[in-house]
């Protein structure tokens, strides 16, 4: 299930409070400032720092 663009526009990185964007595959949300990847599970973004992965 894809993320609604309206939802994406109000989400912010929980670490830096900056803008986030959907990754190319639609499987997660990326904060380019912090270089973190937040997974999307069943169409729901998991914006929890403990579940985020660092981007290489």
Secondary structure elements and their pairing?
Elements: H1 5-10, E1 21-22, E2 28-31, E3 36-41, E4 44-45, E5 53-54
Antiparallel strand pairs: 1-2, 2-3, 3-4, 3-5
Descriptive account of the structure:
- Strands 1, 2, 3, 4 and 5 form a five-stranded antiparallel β-sheet that branches.
- The longest helix has 6 residues, at 5-10.
- This protein has a single domain (5-54), classed as N-terminal domain of TfIIb (Single Sheet), CATH 2.20.25.10.
- The chain has one helix at 5-10; strands at 21-22, 28-31, 36-41, 44-45, 53-54.
- The protein is mainly beta.
Structurally, the number of domains stands at 1
Q: Give the ordered list of helices and strands.
A: HEEEEE
**Mean pLDDT level:** 91
- Which structural class best describes the helix and strand composition? mainly beta
Largest sheet: 5 strands, antiparallel
> Which range does the strand content fall in?
25-35%
Helix content: 10-25%
Report the CATH C-level class. Answer: Mainly Beta
The DSSP helix count reads 1
